[in-house]
Write a structure and sequence with these properties.
114 residues; Transcription Regulator spoIIAA; five-stranded mixed sheet; STAS_dom; STAS domain-containing protein; STAS_dom_sf; anti-sigma factor antagonist activity
């Protein structure tokens, strides 16, 4: 699974380049995110703007990344498409994650978070 990343100030922005995060790619997703997250940063923003399908396995993988980061580093999500936003809402994960409309919004919000 291709995930691009860049460090902007103290925010690590990871962009999923695939259209699906499902059971077929969850192991690869978690491994790639663990490698990317080894870059030190105060927070990690996961840009899901290209993801149009996320199943329960995919959501579990996103939660796994959050747990991997631990309480000292926050995982935030950005750019949820309609279907992915529904999954977050139906599972109440929208109350667990800070959700931004876009990666640019998340980066702009970095000034107010630490």
């Amino acid at each position: 699974m291709e995930i691009t990343s860049k460090l902007v100030n103290d925010t690590l922005l990871a962009t999923v380049e695939a259209s699906r995060i499902d059971s077929a790619v969850t192991v690869q997703f978690k491994e790639t995110m663990r490698q990317i997250a080894s870059t030190k940063s105060a927070r990690v923003v996961l840009d899901l703007s290209r993801v149009t399908f996320l199943d329960s396995s995919g959501l579990g993988a996103v939660v796994g990344v959050m747990k991997f980061l631990g309480p000292e580093r926050k995982l935030e999500v950005a750019g949820l498409t309609i279907n992915v936003a529904k999954v977050f809402s139906l599972t109440r994960m929208d109350t667990v994650f800070r959700i931004h409309n876009s990666a640019l919004d998340a980066l702009a919000a970095s000034e107010g978070t630490a």
